Amino acid sequence: MSENIFLNFIGGEWQKSVSGDVGKSYNPANKNEIVGIVQKSTKDDLDRAVEQAKSAQKAWRKLSGAERGNYLYRAAAILTDNLDEVAMTMTKEMGKSLPEAKGETNRGIEILKYYAGEGMRADGEVIPSTDASALMFSKRVPIGVVGVITPWNFPVAIPLWKMAPALIYGNTVVLKPATEGAVTAAKVIECLEKAGFPAGVINFVSGSGSVIGQGLAEHPDVNAVTFTGSNDVGKRIGTTVAERGGKYQLEMGGKNPIIIAEDADIEAAVEATLSGGLKSTGQKCTCSSRVIVQSTIYDQFKEQLIKKTSEITVGDGMDDSTWMGPCASEEQFNTVKHYIAKGQEEGAALVFGGKQLTEGKLKNGYYLEPAIFENVTTDMTIAQEEIFGPVLALMKVDTVEEAIELANDVDFGLSASIFTKNIDHILSFIDDMEAGLVRINSETAGVELQAPFGGMKASSSYSREQGQAAKEFFTTIKTVFIKG
Length: 484
Ligand code: NAP
Ligand code: MG
What we know:
2 domains; globular; 15 helices; binds NADP nicotinamide-adenine-dinucleotide phosphate; Aldehyde Dehydrogenase, Chain A, domain 1; Aldehyde Dehydrogenase, Chain A, domain 2; alpha/beta
């Protein structure tokens, strides 16, 4: 296979799409650089992948958990050997800085190991029967073929945190990665191929969301669909899968608040706001987007935040001198600019940044200065809609109660954080905050693979991923009654 052309992986073979059509993936730090070429697949390609996954599942589910686990351990070792190359591809394809990309690839390795171990853990319980001479127990069984639809912002970790549990519990998978992250995903699939999974257990089909993503949602032989991405797409996928009686899981957007109370360690709160809000160029679903600050410390906090933000270095992410990379694509860049203009139109004050950066090496990329708005009110678009870019909205409140109320005044409910030392405030934040992830004296972003992850309200379909929670989605329960 030519180095830069990536094929579909179907039934254990790398295949061109029957369409004969391909798409190019560009480097957002340099619009002229093609990172790779991927297949623009058709429904026929997808049908073959699903057929292969369906037929491979019969033997895959018969293996012991330990045997399946060995494949995942091998995959972890091979991904470790290829960490630098995978991370570099990620940086080039979607602009995340290299240290962050390496961190994410490492996370992928840890996820593979965690779920490899799952193959040796208990998967059921004995339930006392009313019949004293019978044995009754529950047992987890696979669902069948799982369709995996992923976004571009974590192009290694998200496919793996879905595929690893799907596989260990005896399912087979068809991955449709985001087009903007398809080259990086293909690199991960190359590692999985080398781990020697039986043909058809893992399939990879790149192509447009409306053809391959929607195709997975509609396919009668795809028993479950796990999706991470935007709300509009997620809702449509959920409806489509539900209509045909399939199982689905949707993890979607956020509009995450960070609350800074008057007793907060301001320096730590500023650090957390920058890291949670602007790392990955604000393109994490758990990014802090609304910064809700108590009025007594507002000016002090704002001054420090602007000072620290002005020190951020923006670049192509290829070395440690870059703190923040470009927006991941032209589309994302235009979306962020649209929201910055909207904020100004609706009367928020842009107190820092927000302009395109074009100096020197930056001229060929989708670079923006981080932006800070103040006088943001909850009815404004930039206080309600997910921007997915380096934009912070400062909001001033008098009390922590008011802050929590404001924090809840959005459709989303993914993650939230508070900086305070007051135990009453901490307890009411934990209790009253409508978010799937609540963090105290820590940034809003920060997910640990062994803990359940997912949102409330519009951020999720109420399912949870990662940790032991993944078992709920990727298995179903069989209740067994044995009478001697
Ligand atoms: P997106 O546009 O919704 O795309 C997600 C995936 O769905 C991609 O593979 C995409 O394919 C596919 N897709 C697009 N249109 C489709 C359709 N009509 N039917 C079926 N599939 C379709 O999201 P994104 O822009 O890649 O990612 C950013 C979003 O993901 C943000 O909203 C972010 O908050 C969310 N996110 C959530 C979490 C979480 O765990 N809660 C984590 C990370 C990201 P194409 O790329 O080919 O369009
Ligand atoms: Mg998209």
